[in-house]
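Lab meeting, item 3. Inverse folding demo.
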């Protein structure tokens, strides 16, 4: 599955009217930072989508810390950005990878297949001394037609069945760092630990300075998992699991789902067990 776009391709197609660039820069530690960085400097022609305000919905009792956005509102924002079914969309962040991957997954979920992630992100772009601007573009409103791909998302009930029944053909992957996976350290969520039966594949091990590692290395990362298995990836709130989703696709895994609510949703149900 071809997910990544390199900066050379984007530079060559920078002024193509059919290409839309989306800046997803964000900081979990400072939610205002991403927009401030965008307003200071971004790739020419890029519009901005905020993780909290655009790529996530209202936080409630269940659904996790970054639940699915209201799809009607999200689609309206895509239309204001001039994105329709024919638009080639390229998302990027500062180089962390997770926020651009979140946007990519959301468009895939809406059935838009012409969406890619800029490999290396904005840091890689600047390292190439490619053009930047502070100019905020305006685009002609379009009509975006969604065709939701329900096969990309896993419900809490599906995850619970996988955790309780320990099915041989369903694999849960915890994308967080090892300390959080083991329950030694939990800096964000109210409870520490993991969903029972989950394997640990930290998401950042699939990248190198913002660039995704080659498919062969991704295959080695997941070599203990059969390609015929159904895989459900999760993290703390469904954001950093998205790069693992992309890495699994690059490694040749077809049946991959994202548990969007992730661990923060799992622990919101008192009856759910923690390992």
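The presenter then showed the designed sequence:
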């Amino acid at each position: 599955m071809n997910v990544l776009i390199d900066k050379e391709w984007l530079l060559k197609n920078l002024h193509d009217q059919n290409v839309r660039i989306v800046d997803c820069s964000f900081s979990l530690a400072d939610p205002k930072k991403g927009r401030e960085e965008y307003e200071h400097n971004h790739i020419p022609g890029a519009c901005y989508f905020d993780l909290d305000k655009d790529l996530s919905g209202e936080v409630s009792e269940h659904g996790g810390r970054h639940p699915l956005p209201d799809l009607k509102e999200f689609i309206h924002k895509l239309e204001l950005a001039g994105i329709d079914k024919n638009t080639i969309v390229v998302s990027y962040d500062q180089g962390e990878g997770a926020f651009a991957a979140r946007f990519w997954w959301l468009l895939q979920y809406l059935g838009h297949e012409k969406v890619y992630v800029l490999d290396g992100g904005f840091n890689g772009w600047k390292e190439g001394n490619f053009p930047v601007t502070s100019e905020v573009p305006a685009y002609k409103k379009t009509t975006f037609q969604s065709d939701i791909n329900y096969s990309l998302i896993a419900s809490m009930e599906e995850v619970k069945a996988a955790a309780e029944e320990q099915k041989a053909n369903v694999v849960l992957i915890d994308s967080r760092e090892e300390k959080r996976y083991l329950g030694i350290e939990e800096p964000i969520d109210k409870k520490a630990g993991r969903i029972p039966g989950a394997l640990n594949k930290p998401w950042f091990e699939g990248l190198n300075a913002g660039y995704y590692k080659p498919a062969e290395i991704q295959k080695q990362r997941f070599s203990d998992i059969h390609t015929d298995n159904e895989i459900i990836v999760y993290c703390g709130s469904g954001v950093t699991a998205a790069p693992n989703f992309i890495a699994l696709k690059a490694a040749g895994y077809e049946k991959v789902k994202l548990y969007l609510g992730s661990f923060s949703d799992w622990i919101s149900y008192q009856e759910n067990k923690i390992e």
